[in-house]
């Protein structure tokens, strides 16, 4: 019922139900429908939680689904026709299995009322970019469609994966517009075509550079690509339109600004959380990088599509006003795959792998402040301890002055004080303290470290 409701909505009152509809399913997990309700296979420790399942391919997913069906049927048979399921809230329940189908079977059933439905599995991960071949699968599926062909994209929740898919699909639509309608628009008197050019998009210059996506590795790829700045502008425009309302979008996930928000959160996390978040931040930079590269690829594809129009077709497709060629969107050909484009620009792969972690992960303590603290420690650590703590917090107050007041800022300052005190401890205390932390007798916490310092000095 849910699938058909979505299909009915995209058709509305005007689009024919037997017309072509593209549906991309971006989930990595094999899915079944039990009594019409969806279930999926997940690791036990990842139920209802953020999960990266690796580079799952479409072929793997297609093979896993029938196997998952067989497993579930076997469990139900061995349990009196009932199946145990753990829901997203980690609550276990047992349901009587009246009907069980694979997602593929459910899609085939939906085609009875929507015969033009094309369902494509493109399993992608949450944070990092889709595989290069995944970009090609999306392009090949959309090739030959009209500009008004509905496109549905889903994952589990509708956040990272769906937003990524939406951005890729919109960039393909922009390719169709550039290659097909550019000549037509040029013939309309009085139209300022500059207003329609996505590559002239300008973000708010008052935004922090990280929120504008100005990472070192992004600057490198912009410099390396043909019309790299234009590709980034166009990509940013599409990301913002698919983002949250505060950036002019209609979605619920801001792929670019989310990186910067995660980076700000990084400073207040403990070590284990930082390790997880660091990987996520680098993966998201990896995705943003590849979306810019894909935009450059689509821009090149539009140029090639216009140039590839056969001589015998040009007469029929050339507009009398202006003499420009306007190829119907459903007749556009992509002359080169994204994988081939990346082979021609193989250095970009190394660029992102080595550059995605090139961020300042910790704020540098001013050299004068560090010298002052080290002087207080070396002269008389015990006697100067209260002054050391005072100066630690005074330094933190200056260093984190750019952060808004609140719990985030308090935790960032406290974490800085804890780590810096550990850094400047006298050698006769530092070794023992490190050993205690390694044995988990204490944690890297300011008050725990101070308490041990007092004990050790008695």
Describe the protein's architecture and organization.
The chain has 458 residues and is mainly alpha-helical. It is 52% helix and 8% strand. It contains 17 helices and 8 strands. A 3-stranded parallel beta sheet has the order 7-1-8, sandwiched between helices. Strands 3-2-6 form a 3-stranded antiparallel beta sheet. The chain has a two-stranded antiparallel sheet with strand order 4-5. β2 and β3 form a beta hairpin. It starts with a helix and ends with a helix. The mean pLDDT is 89.
Q: Would you summarize the structure shown here?
A:
The protein has 458 residues and is mainly alpha-helical. It is 52% helix and 8% strand.
Write the layout of secondary structure elements.
Blueprint: H1 2-11, E1 21-25, E2 31-34, E3 37-40, H2 58-77, E4 82-86, E5 92-96, E6 100-102, H3 103-110, E7 117-121, H4 132-142, E8 151-154, H5 160-185, H6 216-224, H7 228-241, H8 257-266, H9 271-307, H10 311-317, H11 338-344, H12 347-355, H13 367-380, H14 385-399, H15 407-424, H16 427-438, H17 446-457
Parallel strand pairs: 1-7, 1-8
Antiparallel strand pairs: 2-3, 2-6, 4-5
Helix pairs in contact: 5-9, 6-7, 6-9, 6-12, 7-9, 8-9, 13-14, 14-15
N/C terminus separation: 73 Å
Global structural class: mainly alpha
Q: Give the helix tally.
A: 17
What are the secondary-structure elements, in order, as H or E? Answer: HEEEHEEEHEHEHHHHHHHHHHHHH
How confident is the prediction overall: mean pLDDT?
A: 89
| Topology, number of strands | 8
Helix fraction bin: 40-55%
Principal-axes geometry comes out as globular
What's the story with the biggest beta sheet?
3 strands, parallel
Amount of beta strand:
5-15%
* Largest beta sheet: strand ordering: 7-1-8
Low-confidence stretches: none
**CA-atom Rg in angstroms:** 28 Å
């Amino acid at each position: 019922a849910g699938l058909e409701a979505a299909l009915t909505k995209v058709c509305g009152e005007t689009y024919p139900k037997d017309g072509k509809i593209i549906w991309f399913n971006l989930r990595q997990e094999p899915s079944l429908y039990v009594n019409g309700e969806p279930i999926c296979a997940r690791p036990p420790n990842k139920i209802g939680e953020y999960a990266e399942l690796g580079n799952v391919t479409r072929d793997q997913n297609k093979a896993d689904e029938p196997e998952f069906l067989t497993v579930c049927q076997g469990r139900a048979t061995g349990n009196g026709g009932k199946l145990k399921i753990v829901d997203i809230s980690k609550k276990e329940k047992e349901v009587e299995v009246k009907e069980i189908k694979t997602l593929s079977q459910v899609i085939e059933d939906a085609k009875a009322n929507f015969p033009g439905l094309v369902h494509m599995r493109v399993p992608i991960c949450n944070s990092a970019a889709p595989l290069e071949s995944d970009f090609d699968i999306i392009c090949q599926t959309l090739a030959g469609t009209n500009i008004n062909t509905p496109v549905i994209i889903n994952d589990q929740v509708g956040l990272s994966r769906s937003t990524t898919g939406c951005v890729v699909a919109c960039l393909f639509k922009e390719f169709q517009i550039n290659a097909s309608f550019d000549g037509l628009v040029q013939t309309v008197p009085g139209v300022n075509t500059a207003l329609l050019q996505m590559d002239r998009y300008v973000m708010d210059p008052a935004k922090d550079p990280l929120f504008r996506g100005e990472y070192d590795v992004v600057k490198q790829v912009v410099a390396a690509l043909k019309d790299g700045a234009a590709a980034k502008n166009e990509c940013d425009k599409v990301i913002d339109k698919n983002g949250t309302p505060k950036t002019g979008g209609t979605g619920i996930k801001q792929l670019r600004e989310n990186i910067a928000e995660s980076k700000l959160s990084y400073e207040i996390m403990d070590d284990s959380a930082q390790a997880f978040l660091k990987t996520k931040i680098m993966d998201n930079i990896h995705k943003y990088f590849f979306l810019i590269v894909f935009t450059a690829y689509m821009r090149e594809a539009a140029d090639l599509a216009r140039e590839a129009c056969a001589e015998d077709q040009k007469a029929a497709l050339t507009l009398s006003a202006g003499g420009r060629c306007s190829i119907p969107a459903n007749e556009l050909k992509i002359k080169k795959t994204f994988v081939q484009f990346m082979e021609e620009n193989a250095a970009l792969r190394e660029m992102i792998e080595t550059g995605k972690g090139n961020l300042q992960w910790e704020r540098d303590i001013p050299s004068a402040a560090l010298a002052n603290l080290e002087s207080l420690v070396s002269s008389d650590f015990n006697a100067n301890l209260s002054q050391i703590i005072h100066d630690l917090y005074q330094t933190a107050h200056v260093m984190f002055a750019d952060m808004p007041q609140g719990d985030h800022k308090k935790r960032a300052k406290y974490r800085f004080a804890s780590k810096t005190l550990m850094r400047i401890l006298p050698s006769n205390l530092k070794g023992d303290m490190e050993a205690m932390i390694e044995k988990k007798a204490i944690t890297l916490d300011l008050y725990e470290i101070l308490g041990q310092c007092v004990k050790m000095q008695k």
